[in-house]
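Annotators were shown the component list below and the corresponding predicted structure, then asked to write short factual statements about the assembly.
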Amino acid sequence: MDVSAFASAPEGGVDALQKRITDLEAEVLDLRRQLPVEGHGSAPGTAQAARDPHWHMLANAMPHIVWVAPSFGAIDFINDHWYRYTGLPPGSMSQDNWTAALHPDDLPAIAAMWDRALATGGEVTFEYRVRRADGAWRWHQGVHRPVRNAESTIENWVGVAFDIHDRKLAETALRDAEERDRAANQALQLLIDHAPDGLFVADASGRYVSVNPAAGALLGYSRAELLEMRVQDLVRPEDLERQAQTIAKLADGNIQVSEWELRSKSGEWIPVEITAKLLPDGRMQAFVRDIRERRRLQSAALHLAAIVESSDDAIISKDLNGVITSWNQSAERVFGYTAGEVTGKHISILIPPDRLAEEPEILRRLQLGERVDHFETIRRRKDGTLLNISLTISPVRDSTGRIVGASKIARDITEWKQAAAERTAAHRREQEARQTAELLNRIGPALASELSLDRLAQYITDIATELVGAEFGAFFHNLVNENGESYTLYTLSGVPREAFAHLSMPRITGVFAPTFRGEGIVLSEDITQDPRYGHNPPHHGMPKGHVPVRSYLAAPVQSRSQEVLGGLFLGHSQPGRFSERHVALLSGLAAQAAIALDNARLFEQSQWAQEELERSNRDLRRANQDLETFAYSASHDLQEPLRMISISAQLLARDAGKLSENSRNFLNGIEEGAGRMQTLIEDLLSYTRATRQGDGPVPRLDSGVVLERVLQQLRPAIEESAARVVVDGPLPQIAIHEVHLTQLFQNLISNALKYRSAEDPYVHISALERENGNVFSVSDNGLGIDFRFADQIFGLFKRLHTRAEYPGSGIGLAICKRIVEQYGGRIWLDRSAPGDGSVFSFSFPIEPKA
Amino acid sequence: MVEDSPTDAYVIGEALSACPFSYELMVLTDGDAALTLLQRVEDEEGPPVPGLVLLDLNLPKVSGIAVLAALRASRRCADAPVVVVTSSDSASDMKAIFDLGVTAYFRKPHNLEAFMTLSKVIVEALHKQNPD
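Structure shown to annotators:
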């Protein structure tokens, strides 16, 4: 700022004015030296001198107003200059008109000055205006000085008035100029003090001599600290050379603008822009601007540009006329034009003709400052293909907020659209599938609950026909009868049975093959147009009298084992009636039907099996009865002839004396054979009787009591064998017919006695109560049994010894087994070895107490 | 005696012969013959009412039970003592003969001695009851 420019200043400026003032002051001082001085004697300025004509002459020669007055207003001398200056008639000054050329406004001040002078008796100086001859009021400086006599009494007052008008003007101008200068300087200082930029002033050596607060704030130093530093202290070492060069260039008088990094007190390097110039006095002045924000913005802008370039979306900017101003790589990819091809062209080259009306609307909205978000439309590529595009258009404003254009982000959503369409379709399919599943889930249990194959087949046919909206439905299903023979039945829906009665069964040819072979569902819009249709003689298509089928849908019904249980055939007289949804429905139904058919078949088979089982049981019972009847009749029918043989042999034996030795032996053979046969028959009879008697509840017995009775009966045999028989503790209560338990004990103890050891034989009978039943054991220290025969010994008429060694038919253990098994129990050889005794055990499950 | 087995008839006959009283023994070998004789007795064509009937059950043509039933249903022989001598121990046969009013019953033993003794003891006992 040029602070020395003053609009009203005299030529030469302040300096000249100052000089003029100085000159005038010197002149006044000079004049004042010429004034009569205070004091005594005849020196100028004394009372006498004032009346001295020489002094008067001298005073008259002065170019200033000089007067002498003994008292206020009583001027008795005024020099010629007064008259010359004021233009008043010479000699006209009197006590009455001395104010004639004085400015009326100043008179009170003059009077006051006089009063002060008179009161103090000292010199007074003041200013007032005198009218010059030309009428101009001009400022004068008056100096009134008392002149004292020898007695120091004031005799006169001498006054001098200098025209100080020019000086005063100059002074005023100067004051004004200074005022303005000061204000300007203050403003400048204010500016400097509050400038956002740092201001550094350095001397020629580089030492800072002046810095503003912003400079300190920028770098974190106090003013005092900065003033201790040099310009070299703040730059990076590697910048020192450039700094030196820059300083050197300042000498050219040009302003140097350059970017640096200055080190702050905290050690941070702060990017700055320095505007430096050389001041006339050789000092260097530098404005230092913090450009961190600018750098950041630049960096952000670079990032933004990078983002724009790398975006997958086409990003285009255009001005408000729709002219393209920028074009990123993706725009090139999406639209096929290079940036060079389209920049400067109108955006409408991207718009298909039928959508050109969109652009004005977009521009209108942009001008209102509105954003257009995700506007889905169609745009055209360079090659003419159309794209589904989602547009987001935002107004672009300049720094003043004025809308100058638009940025346009175009996303190619062609694939997205397709995907969305696919998703919608998938969703619809899913919904249909769910509905299908729900429908089938409702049908499933209904199908599954039908166990009659005939009714089930009809049900399946009816449901299938209804589900797919067919006019005709048929279900051919393969069946197997009780004898394992296959045959095929059919059920119909939507068409009377008579309509098919005259037709033969469909053959596994052409159209039908995939269904009967289980290859999959056949869907045909129009079966009469199907390439598989109509190739087979004799009908070459539908036989005469067949319902008129165009739409055709057929599904195999297959079991889980892939066995084709049958085929569902659905038809409609109109073409194109069945869809993929119907395929899904039918497929599901076929699966449900297969399960239901399987179930029904299994049910039927299980019924057959049940009947078979019942038949077998009946047969078994009959066989058992037959056996018992046989055994019974055997006991009679065989016993009777046997008795006859015995009796006859005995009759014959009475006459034995008449027989030869040989004949008597033969007769003995007959008697012995008859006796043995009788034993066998009786044993067989008791074996058949070892059956559970009746269906009523079995009484619970104290097995210990039964055992006591058995031992009583066996006493002769026990005594004969000299065996010790030990019963171990109390025996349990069990549910068994007494006769059976008696037989068990009898047989096992008899065996133990029969096959006893020679020394100290014993038989030990015990019972254990186990979790799942009572276990009885009969142990002995007898002959023992080779364990190989452990199972065999329970067979009917099984013997391990010759009859000569040990008599018996070998039915005892067989009877025991039969009895135990009648009660759901078990008998086994627990432990045995030849010569080491045997342990036979039998168990009965614990039956719930009645 | 109605008995199809000649051996048994011989054994019983021998047992009777040892009895201390006189008698006339007629042996019939099947049920039909027994019914024919009964009819003749009823018709009073000569044969007398029997003092004792020894009856086997298992007979050819007509069973012993049917013969017993006919005897008990007859006019003249309803009260005649009837001893069933059989090898059957069938409960149904037992019930039938007792229901029809058999006088005595014994099973034919396999032992000859026992057969003879039993036959003799029973016949003698019956004779003591009814000496006529």
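Statements collected:
1. Chain A is about 40% helix and 20% strand.
2. Residues 1-10, 37-46 of chain A have pLDDT under 50 and may be disordered.
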